[in-house]
From TrEMBL, chain A:
Record's keyword annotation contains Signal: no
Region (Disordered) residue spans: 64-83
Organism domain of life: Eukaryota
Protein name, entry field: Small ribosomal subunit protein mS29
GO cellular component terms, A-Z: mitochondrial small ribosomal subunit
Localization per record: Mitochondrion
Keywords: Mitochondrion, Ribonucleoprotein, Ribosomal protein, Transit peptide
Transmembrane domains' residue ranges: none
From TrEMBL, chain B:
Biological process, per Gene Ontology: translation
Name recorded for this polypeptide: Small ribosomal subunit protein uS9m
Transmembrane regions listed in the UniProt entry: none
Species this protein is from: Penicillium cataractarum
Keywords recorded for this protein, A-Z: Ribonucleoprotein, Ribosomal protein
Lineage: Eukaryota, Fungi, Dikarya, Ascomycota, Pezizomycotina
Single GO molecular function: RNA binding
From TrEMBL, chain C:
Organism: Penicillium cataractarum
Family: Belongs to the universal ribosomal protein uS2 family.
Protein name (database record): 37S ribosomal protein mrp4
Keywords: Ribonucleoprotein, Ribosomal protein
Pfam families: Ribosomal_S2
Length: 507, 312, 352
């Protein structure tokens, strides 16, 4: 088959282009992609009309598609650092749109033990609100902001606790002054564990106790605050100076009145700058400025508060110390390894943090530590709760002991073999020995129907509920809230909506 | 054309249904010249081969001298032989002829006709021994239903017999459901289903406490709506504070479990108080929701969703 | 001229004035009025027998009290009484008649074929030129099939069917189009043949053992009585193949015709102007799109088969067959070793 190429033509075409006077300029001749055998006809033909712009184009210009660039719109200024968190953590305690509840009583030393007021809502006294804020007793997600002023239900557990407060303060008929009550508060989600702690704090303020709180146990183990090992300890212990400093600040802010009235009564060699005549408030304030001495200051403060007598030579201004209330919320976070790391990068167990250990050990040696009596309330949490198998077993053991199951019986719950149970936790939850009183497990359940009715009536009287609160309606809400779980009752009570008409019963 | 080997030729003649006596002749495609032996489907065999030696033991009993005992042909048993499913077609034709024959007989409304349990498809397939498609069996059942609608006093005997031959063994409609009642401990036990969930409820008189799978209602159902729908039977009859429920629910999701409980509680409540039936019926509590998830089909993204159309 | 119409046409006002007119128009008539006697209210007791309606009215009064069987009997009786009243209709077309009582081949007339519409072919553009010899002409763009050709071919096909039936052949009537079912079944019933009115399963002939293997067969004697003693010998036999296939719609049964061709089974088919006449052995040029036409042809062929069967049975009654009957020995032979018997007894016998 003959080639369609004439090789001589081809070489002439490519190598030596003949001068073409009559040809249009090279640039506008159509490009011949395949030269046919006789290309002259194509070459000499009139150039085909090209589409407009192509004639005038210069090198690399206008060939590409031009699109308008998207204009970057100016965004609003991003929120300042911490602004969002502040918004998130903001606690609103009052709603001016809600109705003032007529005849609502405040929490006081009389009302809190009054069984006739059971089921009613007691308002928190206004001057106490600052103290409660200082100890961070209010949590953002609680529904304080829907009522005119904060108040809590006087339920059975509250009344029992109030009586304990009276006893420990030495006011009741059966004086048990100086006793230490230790409780672990558990319960379903929304059953009011944190509010129970808040009520305890309020009662502590009413009774002029010293209130020391850890509002969120997680903050101490989540690796957010600075920590440093204590020299000479084995296994190494760690101190968290900033967290201690913050605790001192909270404590002073909340208990200023009590602390200012108490004078230093012991010698503190670690604090040379402390004057002999200074108050406990001054002592605590030492830890504010310099976080490095916060831990010794805290230790000094603790010894001062738990002192039963003054050191020799300092008896002049000694006043008996009040009982102490210690509360911790979210205890489960302290039952695992913390987010801190040791020098060899091994995780630090929460019990190796001195500050944590200090509070935890109160369960075992509370009476020994709190010599003036007091109450230790540690609550679990269900909203931010690590699943800790050993703690569950330990709480079950506690419940079994309370139910009268002896630890040697086969019914006594034990961790499964090879489950890797944490021995330190089991050790912590072992029954105490000697004079030390046992710590208890307090499981918060739901409100009774009467309490629930009082609570829902409070909603109605605050203008949040437009329905008639009667026996059947309350009973229905009580069932729907899983047996009077107070958080669920609150959801149902604040649910302003048109409920479906229930059909009347025919018979 | 090459001359074929005798073996191949035999086969070829079998296919052509020719006599083996024609093996000596070249095969021709002319139909007119072929000899056909009708009434036989035995191919390539000479009928004169009734040889003297008889080996089969049963042979002497047949009297071949008798013309009527002599076999003549092998024919299909049914005129529908070539349809591939002769028995089914014969049934259909028979029923159609019956329907045409008794078309003028008065009928009753479909609801008034006696309830008959026809063969299920699988049973019918076993009965006829043929792979009958669903659609065709449905058309047959349609005829059966029409015949069944004939005024019961006037059903002719042959129709009655024919219809009875299509009934599945055992009469499922004869079984009367035993009304279940509260047991001696005052518990009413009932089941309910919805989507993939199954709920078993034990309802006793009480104060309105509800336990779901050993947990409280709040733990089992986070949403208020689910709790409300689970207890709707009690709520709409205002019995919430009069009964305690102990519930076991398995499978499915939250909504399905809640609505399975609704149904189960409704049924259990009926055992306690049968007079509540109209109220519960109106509230939609004892109505079974039989909807299930539609299966995914090949070629679809989901049950019905088609893939996006893409140009090329 | 009709007075009534005149009134309507000429004076509407007259009608408009006279509002009772509709009641009277019923009685207006061009016929001369007959004087009738003054009507007296008939006494019911005196004239029950004279009034034919009396019985009916009486029956309808107490029909509600009867049980359903009696009610139906009453209705039937009434229907029977009144159905033959009124004008007597003659020469009417009853579509059922073609199925119930189809004509014999000897009754074929061109009028009958014309009335059945067998002459109508397809649009001329769709024709198959091989059919040109059957085509009479073109009318309104449609080919007209020559009816005398149709009649001749139909008679020939009828003869074929009759002869095959007389020789004990298996005749299969196939009409798979919608509506042909009854005609096909009826033709098969008449000719003692076989029918197929649903889809032809491809491979029923070429792969018969697989497709028809499970279908029952039987051994009959010359009088068509079943011989159950040979039932055991029927196992593992090849499936039965038809000896003649009648196709009412060959265009839609190409597979069937192809298989028949492969198996050397002769076929009869209704060939419309767009069909290929060489696909069937015995074409019947006719319209295959009219159910009336196809029912007629199927019926005629069924009748032909009926005649053939009758003849065969008559012969059998005399102890004769027009075919070579299968022998007991052939039945006993193992069908698995092939139709040529083992040890080639047959060959020896043949040579002998």
């Amino acid at each position: 088959m003959a080639s369609s190429w004439c090789w001589s033509c081809l070489s002439r075409l490519r190598a030596t282009p003949t001068p073409r006077a009559i040809l249009p300029p090279q640039s506008i001749t159509p490009r011949i992609t395949t030269a046919s055998f006789h290309s002259s006809a194509v070459q000499y033909a009139n150039p085909t009309k090209k589409k407009g712009a192509l004639v005038a184009v210069k090198y690399r210009q206008g060939q590409t598609l031009r699109r308008k660039k998207k204009k970057t719109t100016e965004r609003a200024r991003p929120p300042a650092v911490g602004e969002r968190k502040a918004l998130r953590k903001r606690i609103v305690l009052s709603n001016p749109n809600a109705l003032e509840v007529e005849g609502m009583q405040d929490l006081s030393s009389e009302t809190m033990v009054d069984a006739r007021l059971r089921g009613s809502v007691l308002g928190l006294p206004v001057p106490m609100l600052d103290q409660l804020r200082a100890v961070q007793a209010f949590k953002p997600k609680q529904g304080w902001s829907i009522f005119r002023r904060p108040g809590t239900v006087l339920r059975r557990d509250t009344l029992e606790m109030a009586r304990l407060f009276e006893k420990i303060s030495g006011e009741g008929d059966a004086a048990e002054k100086g006793k230490v009550v230790k409780k672990i508060v558990t319960g379903l989600k929304g059953s009011g564990k944190t509010v129970h702690l808040l009520q305890a704090m309020a009662m502590g303020f009413v009774k002029k106790w010293v209130v020391v709180t850890v509002p969120d146990a997680r903050e101490l183990v989540s690796g957010d605050t600075s920590y440093s090992p204590i020299e000479g300890t084995n296994p190494p212990q760690y101190v968290q100076p900033n967290a201690v400093s913050a605790l001192l600040m909270r404590t002073v802010e909340a208990n200023r009145q009590v602390l200012a009235s108490l004078k230093v009564s012991q010698k503190h060699s670690a604090l040379p700058s402390l004057k002999a005549s200074s108050t406990l408030e001054d002592l605590a304030k030492l830890g504010f400025q310099d976080a490095a001495v916060a831990w010794p200051v805290f230790q000094a403060l603790w010894t001062e508060l738990t002192a039963t007598a003054a050191a020799p030579g300092m008896e002049k201004d000694f006043k008996p110390r009040p009982p102490m209330l210690v509360t911790v919320d979210g205890i489960a976070h302290w039952m695992k390894e913390s987010a801190y790391r040791a020098a060899d990068y091994s995780p630090v167990h929460a019990h190796d943090l001195v500050f944590v250990k200090h509070f935890i050990s109160l369960l075992q040696n509370g009476q020994a530590s709190l010599k003036n009596g007091g109450m230790v309330l540690y609550a679990t949490s269900t909203s931010n709760n690590p699943a800790i198998y050993t703690l569950d077993i330990a709480l079950e053991q506690l419940a079994a002991r309370q139910a009268g199951v002896s630890p040697s019986s086969p019914d006594y719950p034990a961790p499964e073999a090879y489950s890797g149970a944490d021995a330190r936790i089991l050790e912590l939850f072992k029954p105490t020995t000697g004079k030390e009183p046992q710590f208890e497990l307090q499981t918060l359940g739901g409100l009774t129907r009467d309490e629930a009715r009082g609570y829902l009536e409070y909603f109605a009287r605050s203008g949040l509920l437009r329905e008639e609160v009667n026996e059947t309606w309350v009973g229905e809400k009580w069932s729907l809230s899983g047996g009077g779980i107070i958080g669920e009752l609150e959801k149902l009570g604040r649910h302003v909506r048109s409920t479906a008409q229930t059909t009347p019963v025919l018979n | 054309m090459a001359r074929p080997t005798p073996n191949g030729l035999t086969q070829a003649f079998q296919a052509l249904r020719l006599h083996s006596s024609t093996t000596s002749r070249p095969v021709t495609r002319c139909l007119a010249r072929q000899t056909r032996t009708y009434a036989t489907e035995v191919e390539g065999q000479q009928p004169s081969a009734l040889a003297t030696q008889e080996q089969a033991p049963a042979a002497p009993e047949i009297d071949f001298t008798n013309f009527s005992r002599r076999p003549a042909r092998i024919v299909p048993a049914s005129p529908s032989y070539f349809s591939g499913s002769p028995r089914f077609i014969d049934h259909v034709l028979k029923l159609e002829s019956l329907q045409a024959k008794y078309a003028s007989l008065p009928t009753v409304a479909a609801g008034d006709a006696p309830r008959m349990a026809w063969f299920k498809l699988a049973q019918f397939r076993d009965y006829v021994g043929e792979p009958v498609p669903m659609k065709k069996y449905k058309s047959l059942v349609k005829i059966l239903q029409r015949l069944n609608r004939i005024q019961p006093e006037m059903v002719p005997g042959d129709v009655k017999r024919t219809l009875e031959s299509f009934l599945r063994p055992g009469n499922p409609y004869a079984v009367q459901h035993v009304q279940r009642t509260v047991d001696e401990n005052g518990r009413a036990r009932a089941k309910g289903k919805r989507k993939e969930s199954t709920a078993v409820v034990q309802l006793v008189e009480g104060e309105g406490e509800v336990i779901v799978n050993g947990k409280s209602l709040v733990e089992a159902f986070q949403r208020v709506h689910d709790r409300e729908s689970a207890l709707w039977a009690l709520r709409c009859t205002q019995r919430l504070d009069k009964y305690n429920a102990w519930i076991t629910v398995r499978g499915g999701g939250v909504t399905g479990q809640a609505e399975a409980i609704t149904l189960a509680i409704g049924r259990a409540l009926l055992m306690h108080e049968p007079a509540l039936k109209p109220v519960l019926r109106k509230a939609g509590v004892i109505t079974v929701d039989a909807r299930r998830v539609e299966r995914k089909k090949p070629g679809h993204v989901k049950a019905r969703k088609m893939p996006t159309w893409v140009k090329r | 001229m009709i007075v009534r119409k005149l009134c309507v046409r000429q004076s509407r006002q007259l009608l408009a004035l006279n509002r009772q007119a509709p009641a009277y128009t019923r009685f207006l008539s061009t016929e001369t009025p007959i004087d009738t006697a003054v009507q007296t209210p008939p006494k019911e007791s005196s004239t029950p027998a004279q009034n034919p309606l009396h019985e009916v009215v009486q029956a309808s009064r107490d029909i509600a009290q009867l049980n359903p069987r009696q009610q139906w009997g009453e209705l039937e009786k009434r229907r029977h009484t009144f159905n033959n009243l009124g004008s007597s209709v003659q020469e009417s077309y009853d579509p059922e008649d073609l199925i119930r009582n189809p004509p014999k081949p000897s009754d074929i007339t061109l009028e009958m074929l014309l009335a059945a519409g067998t002459h109508l072919g397809h649009s001329t553009s769709r024709w198959n030129p091989q059919n040109s010899r059957y085509i009479f002409g073109i009318r309104e763009g449609v080919h007209i099939i020559s009816l005398d050709v149709t009649a001749a071919y139909l008679r020939r096909a009828a003869k074929v069917v009759e002869e095959v039936a007389a020789r004990g052949g298996i005749i299969l009537f196939a009409g798979t189009r919608k509506g042909q079912k009854r005609a096909v079944v009826r033709a098969a019933e008449l000719a003692k043949g076989y029918h197929i009115f649903e889809r032809w399963i491809p491979g029923s002939l070429t792969n018969g053992q697989q497709i028809l293997g499970h279908c029952e067969t039987k051994v009959v004697n010359a009088m068509d009585q079943e011989l159950p003693e040979f039932k055991a010998d029927l196992a593992d036999r090849p499936s039965v193949k038809p000896d003649l296939v009648v196709v009412l719609n060959p265009l839609e049964n190409v597979v069937l015709l192809h298989e028949c061709g492969l198996n050397n089974v002769p076929t009869i088919g209704i060939i419309d102007t767009d069909a290929d006449p060489t696909r069937v052995t015995y074409p019947i040029p006719a319209n295959d799109d009219t159910l009336k036409g196809t029912s007629l042809i199927a019926g005629i062929l069924g009748r032909a088969g009926e005649a053939g069967q009758k003849r065969r049975l008559e012969m059998a009654a005399e102890g004769k067959t027009a075919y070579e009957p299968i022998t007991a020995r052939q039945l006993r032979l193992d069908p698995l070793t092939g139709s040529a018997p083992p040890g080639s007894d047959l060959d020896k016998a043949e040579q002998a």
